[in-house]
Amino acid sequence: MKWMCFPVVAAVIFAAAPVGAARQVEVVVDAAHPGPVINKNVYGQFVEHLGTGVYGGLWVGPESPVPNTRGWRNDVIGALKALHVPLVRWPGGCFADDYAWRDGIGPRDRRPVKINTNWGGVTETNAVGTHEFFDLVDLLGADAYVNGNVGTGSAGEVAEWVEYMTADGPSALARLRATNGHPAPFKVAFFGLGNESWGCGGNMTSRHYTDLYNHYATFVRARKEAMPALIAAGGLDGDVAWTDSLSRHIRANASAISLHYYTVPGRGGKAKGAATGFGEDQWMSALQDALHMNDLIAANVARLGATDPGGKYRLAVDEWGTWYDPTPGTIPRFLQQQNSLRDALVAALHFHIFHAHADRVSMANIAQMVNVLQAMVLTDGERMVLTPTYHVFKMYVPFQDATALPVQVAGAPRYTLGAASIPAVSVTAARGKDGRLELGLVNTDPHEAADVGVAVVGVRAVSATGSVLTAAAMDAHNTFAVPDAVAPAPLAARIADGRVIVRLPPKSVAVLAIGE
User: Fold this and answer.
1) Are 204 and 309 part of one and the same domain?
2) Would 13 be classed as within a structural domain?
3) What is the DSSP pairing of strand 437-443 with strand 508-515?
4) Known catalytic membership, residue 319
5) pLDDT digit string (tens) for 369-412?
6) 280 counts as catalytic
């Protein structure tokens, strides 16, 4: 049978309950009719040569007094390994379409120094290049997603980079790689051709980019077992017309079309809004904008259903996350921002959306991993702090490669503020690789709790254990001085007549494992 994905958010309006009361929400999970697998790569990460996202945040160099392994910070690597990071995208972003890969190989003290014209006009030493990146993904146990330069690079340069990374045997580029310290080929899981080609990647039209894609992809060659899956660069904010053009006119090999979308409070205004110190209007605006991701994916999935009914192309949401005004006192083009409880809810809502579209969404990469935009980790010299977004990623690890389960939500109220209104409760469910039934829940209402009753078709629940992430303030965040202001806590749940009963605090994210 064709798997039907029930809405992950409720759309029924109820009258507001008294302060301190909890709304009643009924959830039905259909464990008897499993859906598609949630690709673990939707929990992917993105690291770009931008601000301190690489230099300082991840890479300190082998000679640094900061404890490191071959130049990569031990504290950050250890924290990221706990997330089971499946995939890392590198070197950009906008930086990718200015990147000359040969500048990043060979002895580091002989690599050319450049100016990063995309991000602040700062010095780019090329200390982190191809070999260092693959060392990073090896340390993390992740796969590599390398983004090729279509903006300023040639088809020949792109082809030679892929050969350098993947070739074996007598190839001159394979021998050069060996001379540079890595005799065995690197494993390139994904290779992207261009980035935001409608903008910083070349200000192209969709048809011009499609022709370039066909040209460049023709010359990306590797042994069958080493050939990376190729990804085509999508349009601005999920531009459906761009997706339509690509899916109709790509003739070369391609596995997915990318989609970028950032959550911006007060979209269209003169400022993006502050990462902290915001009011409830900005809380609502951010969550409302985050939920728009579902509309974008649904529109692109519908178009692919018409142009690609056989399912050849997947959607790769390889840039997403919150984007606010930079932290005061930092370099604006470094895009450094604080990370609050609001960001944690934005992340969880995105996970639920990706799960709901698991049949087409095969990858997602949050922007970015360290110190930039919606980061997992913030650093300052030798200090490191984990963000609320980090904790949500860790809570949702059981959903990696889990099998999505249909969910129905009834009786859930909407959270309303003035003219704006969004569902108050979002739910996702899946059967984990270990066989456990996992439930993810979000309460977007910053004032009122929700009492959620969960019935599982085909299963009699006997236990439920989990954790919840919440805080007293909407903009609660972790600092180097107070690193655990926002951290997961155990969540109490009870079983009544085979149903799971749990109270979701206001402004919270929760994950439950249901025992059978």
Assistant:
1) yes
2) no
3) antiparallel
4) yes
5) 999 999 999 999 999 999 999 999 999 999 999 999 999 998 77
6) no
